[in-house]
Structures are given as C-alpha cells and as structure tokens.
Amino acid sequence: MRVTANHLTFLRIILLPLPCFLLYGGPEAKLTALGIGSLLGLTDFLDGKLARRHGSTPLGAFLDPIADKIFIVALYTFLSHLGFLPLWVAGGVFIRELLVSSLRRKVPGALAVTWLAKMKTTIQMFVAALVVAIVTFPGHTFYFLLGAGVILVFGGILARLNLIKFLLVVFMALGLLLLSFLAIPQIVLILGSVALLVTWLSALDYLKIAFSSISLKDFLKVLPGALWPAVVLVFSSQAGSWWILIPLVVVLLFLREALLFFKKEKAQEIVPLVFFLLALLAMLTKELIPVYLIVSSVFLVFENISLFISARPTLFRRT
Fold first, then answer.
1. What's the pLDDT at 48?
2. What pTM was estimated for this model as a whole?
3. Domain count, the chain
4. DSSP secondary-structure letter at 182?
5. Are 303 and 271 in contact (CB under 8 A)?
6. Range of the domain at 148
7. What parts of the sequence cross the membrane (predicted)?
8. Are 231 and 95 within 8 A, CB to CB?
9. CA angle 61, 63, 65 (to 5 degrees)
10. What angle, 0 to 180 degrees and rounded to 10, lies between the N-to-C axes of helices 5-15 and 27-54?
C-alpha cells in the first residue's frame, strides 16, 4: 500500500497524546516524548512533499493545517499545566490562532500566507522542544542551545533563504548561545516570549487586511470565540482532576473552527459568546468549573460530529 500525505497527517494526530502524557514521566520519559514529538513534527515536512508529488486532496488540504494547530495547542496546553511555559504564552498563542482562523471566514477572498506565517509553526515546535530539554536536563543547557543554533543555521541553508532572511536566522542562532549565561527560568521566559512574539508578528498582515475588509461589528463577533480557549486555560489551577478535559476542549475548539468553513451559519456565531460568558461565570465559583468543562466537552463533541457530517461531501470529493 502506498503511503500518502493523508496517512502521515492522520498518524500525527493519532499519536499526539503519547508525547503529551510522557511529559509527566521522569527524565527518560520526557526524552522519549522529545523524540516522538520530533518525529511527529517531521511528518509535517514529509506529508507536504508527498502532497506535492502525488497531488493534494480536499481532505488533505483540510487536515494538514488543522493537524499543525492541534499539535501546537495540545502541546502548549500540557506544557503550561506542567509549568514549563507561562500560562499567558499558551493563551496568547491560542488567541492569535483562533482569531486569524475566524477572520479568514469573514474576509472576502483568501488571505495570503506570508513567509513568517509559514515559519511560525516550526518556531513554536522548536521552542517547545527546547524548553522541555532545558528544563529536564538543566546541566546540558549550553549544548542544547548550541545544537539548536546549528539546526537553525543548517535549516536556513537547506531552505535557500535570501541574504536578509538568512542573516536573521544566524542572528537568532547567536542569540540562543547568549541565553546560556542566564538562569533556566529566564531562558524559558525569553523563549516563550519569542514564540509568542513571532506568533503575533505573523498575524499583522492578516489583521491589517481584516480591519480594512470587515466592520467593527463583525470583528467583535469573532472575538469571544478567539478568547474562549484562553479563558478555559485559566481553569488549569482550579480544575483538579477534571483538568484533563481542558486540552480536549481546546483541541475541539480548533477543530470546530476549521469545520465552520464548510457551514457558515449565524446561529453558530452565538455559541462562542454563550460559552465565553458561561466561562466568566464559572470563574466566580470553583465548583462550577468541572460542570462547565463537562458541558463544553459534550457539546463540542456533538457539534463537531454534526459539522463533519455536513462537510463530508466536500472533504471526500474526488479530484
């Protein structure tokens, strides 16, 4: 059987929980999580090559970007829960990703993907792996940063970047070496801030086009949906054993947003606002948080099933 791009994308999604849960083990388990996570990240590059070689399908065009987003949001949710990354870094990344995705449904025509936007996911994964390595093995921080710098420069050479972009990559690599003089918490804070900064810088072009194309009213309609996962993430310290529902809710929110491209109804714009307001209410009473997470999970599971059924004829259309 020929391995297709879709097979690799499905593999990336199915195996994603494995490295996330391994992060809760000892150093050996975390090292295994790094290895598996790196291999899963590599499938993103390989399925792109296979898609270009054999041709893309509607299902593949849908799955590849959403698989990347699910990979990042799940990973950053777990890293924030473990204290490896500040909560505001993960929340800031989630808000940007959902905001741009929501605006894509509102802005007439397609928003062009910039070079920085293409690099964004790679940098997010790169920072996550580096943070796990440094926190788990602090005595080898210099070597991790040196290796990361070498990988950056080598990647820039393989990508055949122009002079300005390549010099930027070299500057980043040198900056990583300078970080070795700082304490681990400071290094983590800087790396997380860089990931968040790149994430939002990559959104500037999208936001500029969106603000010139849609009304303030339409923008305010998508804002609760963009804030929804960040608010849910705040429940991490108060959810207790129900915390495991938080990554599920966050992943389902991103899947929902992707499926909404195939079914644009006004009724579904009210859903994020309602659940966003309910989340604010749940913040006032700790006992309501498990109830909120259960209701959100159940609702999103059934809504995503409904949206998938509606999108199925388009996703499985033969090209």
1. 64
2. 0.90
3. 1
4. S
5. yes
6. 5-241
7. 7-25, 70-95, 107-135, 141-159, 242-262, 269-285, 291-311
8. no
9. 80
10. 160
